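Model: Ready when you are.
Researcher: Fold this.
Model:
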Amino acid sequence: MKTQTSSPLQFRNMISEFCDKRVMPHVSEEILDKIKSYLDDLIVQHRKPPMRRSQIHWLSFASESRIDCELTEKLKNIIRPALEALIRWVDNGVPQPDQIAPKHKTPDRRPAVRLPKPDRASASVRNPVRPRPSSLASADPVEEFPEPLFGWTEDPQTFQQALNYHMRRFGETYWRLHRAIIKQHEIFDIRTISNWVNGTKTPRSADSFDVLTRIEKRYRLPESYFKSRLPHQARSIYSHELGSDVSAAERRRIVWHLPDDFNQLSFSKREEILEWVRRVIISGSTDYRQFQRKASKQRYAIRFPGISYGAVLSPRTRSETLDFEGSVDEDDFIEDPDLLAGVVDAPPRLAMEMANLVRFKTATLTSVGFQRNGVWGEETASQKVEHLGLLFGALAASPDSEVKGRGIPLRKITFGLLVFPGIWDWYLQWREKRRGFYTSWEQDMLSAILGMTRPETGWMWQHAELAKGLQPVPGLVTVRRRMI
């Protein structure tokens, strides 16, 4: 393994031949395939094997190559030359285009001209420095649409696996791929593609999605092939060229409705798209946007002053103006500037229950005798308080109001109601009728209540006293009397 080559394809062939001749006689076919595949990935990623104190870390090597049960001392000595050659190859770096010299030089056939015999004193005259060949004469040209080394037989499901697989199909390193798809006048860091290959980062910006499109065209892949395998599909793309006149708040709303290739469109086309988004989406022309504007004026949530993390305490509403068993006069409410702050403070018992729950889920250590599964951070705790306030507010709101709530008297609202399926059945149907569809919000709420009622670790499961305050709710919660 002393021969050193700079071409990734030649080096891969050399490593593959080494494995067939030296490794294959000592391992099974399955182990051989794992070793060859792992070495192949290292070459494609232009990465050294795992090292520790300048030595090969065999434990990590066995784990990454998935041969930990088969890696004997004898096998280590057999594989070592290939890994050492790989380390030297990576240290030498991938040759730049202007550093690649032709293997065979064409002799100069012009007639020789006799020159005077030089003096022996000058070494630089005896050995003149030859100029490097021009980059135009590169022996490693980049093809626009290269041919694959093998057929497309696998369908990786993650972005990193898919990118590595197709780079391996075409025998390309991240350096060569960057050189092929990034133009000379463009600025796109080569380390970005390296991070994609290693799985440390994923594309988020508009420029990155443009590069993904170029890779798909180069490898003749379906449109949005890589994008469909990215995690966090609900995230929006950033770095759109919207101009300095677009505020940060407006930008956050607009980017959700822009195409991925927005930056590549003409200026007039981009202006046309921005005008349409502002007119149709932002201004409220769509049905859902009109619902949002209308719903934001219908305040019905129960608020918990002093419990919401970082919340500004809103003015109290006079309790004598509220009659949850009858109609509600909107003029009696105090206007609240907070979107989810609500219109009525929680009664003392419900406020104490909420405070107990938040303390249980946010404390560094639980109280003696209690168990807990999972901790809420500040943001999560604030969100749960708001969401539960909306739920309790919907249950308490009058059926005759625009909210069309359930009309449960405020004194009957307690956490104990949340264990009854009828409560959730009504609430989910109410949410669907109000909005027209379900979202992940409902799923998160159901997950939260399942956690609170989980045996041994759930907060409600460990507080049986919540049942003492339960009262019947017609149609939702009934009382079963035991027959004596």
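Researcher: Now this one.
Model:
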Amino acid sequence: MRSAIFFLLALLFPTLLFSQEEGYEFVNPPVTIVILGSSTAAGAGPSNIDDAWVNLYRQYVQGFNPNNQVINLAKGGYNSYHLLPSDVPRVPKRTQPDTMRNITKAFSYNPDGIIVNLPSNDISNGYSIKEQLANFKMYALYADENDVDLWVTTTQPRSFPKASDRQLQVVMRDSLKQFFGKKCIDFWSGFADDALNVAKEYDSGDGCHLNADGHCILEYRVIASQAFYKKLINSSIQRDTTDNQIKLPPHMLEVGFEGKIYSDSYSSSIDKMRFVKVVQSGRTLNAVDIIDDQYKIETIIDLSNLIEVKYEAPNSLTKVVVFDLSTLEKEEGIEEYIYRPVETIDIEQVDLSTLNYRFPNDQLTIARFVFVPEKLSVDLDKEYSQFQKQRIEDASIFPPEKGRKLKTYWENGNKKSVHRFKKGQLHCKSTWYTENGKKERVVYFKNGAYNGKYITFDSEGKKETLRQFKNDEQIGEIKKFSEN
């Protein structure tokens, strides 16, 4: 397997790891972020409101400090006029500001930051690019006067009947990027098809709103933008009340990973849909876009829980690298400010189209690392990694065009493998042979999954190891046969 490395933008994104510890107290006040916008920010699209990007983002923000707030003032159908300050002159034939959901109302919460998410309603209402931009510039002016950090999102694709309207969405997207620069979060890339309609895989069904998968990516984009990064980090700082020192609780540690992702099949547009995440207990601690295949990530983790570093991309196998640092003592062998468990993590992108068998949730753990106290180092479980590499290769075996049995041969004419299929998936016994005709592996499958015995043989064709599987999950320990 070629190496690929996680080199993720330097961020510190904890989740609810930062609940106040006994003997510790938060040093700084909590952060308040207000969301302004329309139906997407209000939660339209996913079947479960908990999967809406704002609600996902709230979990992330409160991970730094459970007292942090994300106040959502968005409402379906709103356009840029609804959000204007309450004291602006009335614009004839245009919607008036909603004083309960506009930027003036947002200021009343004394926020640390505001995010404006207006995907497409202005174009739907026939409003020009010029007037939309004027409204956004008004938000920026008032935010500056009130010393509030303002971020905006781009427009989003919408399946308008008229191609001209779809093109105007692009013009507005680019105009927002030009005016707001790094404070404009990309909510467009990867969500549009060639005709600038909403891409089918992210369409909730109405040609306007994104589904749960789309909202999940929107949340990642907000995290990766580093919006309010320093303020969120500051909200998580705790102080030891016994000696009044500012430091992380004993079980918390700042860690980093870096490297490169190898892939050949992504366009510049799709590149922006690729992410690397750090996850603990199902919560995203950090998520960043992959740019030019180079990444760096730094985050704060809980030593008592497994750490997952995930690579995700559209139509690709999600690969997971697991770290167990539970036996690591912060005082032992850690001199750097940021602890780097390994120099690199090697990952190769696998296109789902190359797999005949689809893993649950299109995800597979490919490597496991464990901290070894005696060596003060993190060791790779090489046997496990090699086995998972083989698992991907086995999932890539396709049935013959005719019949249910597939035989392959070495160049010398000897059999290389024999496979049986049922309904297009590996089924029952498969056997692999070496070039000299000795058995190499015997594996039992059921509907493409490992199910039953998995036997390996040594160079002499004698049994070497035996594993038992059920529905692709190993049962019990590996049995190793003696040489005699």
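Researcher: Key takeaway?
Model: The chain has a mean pLDDT of 89.
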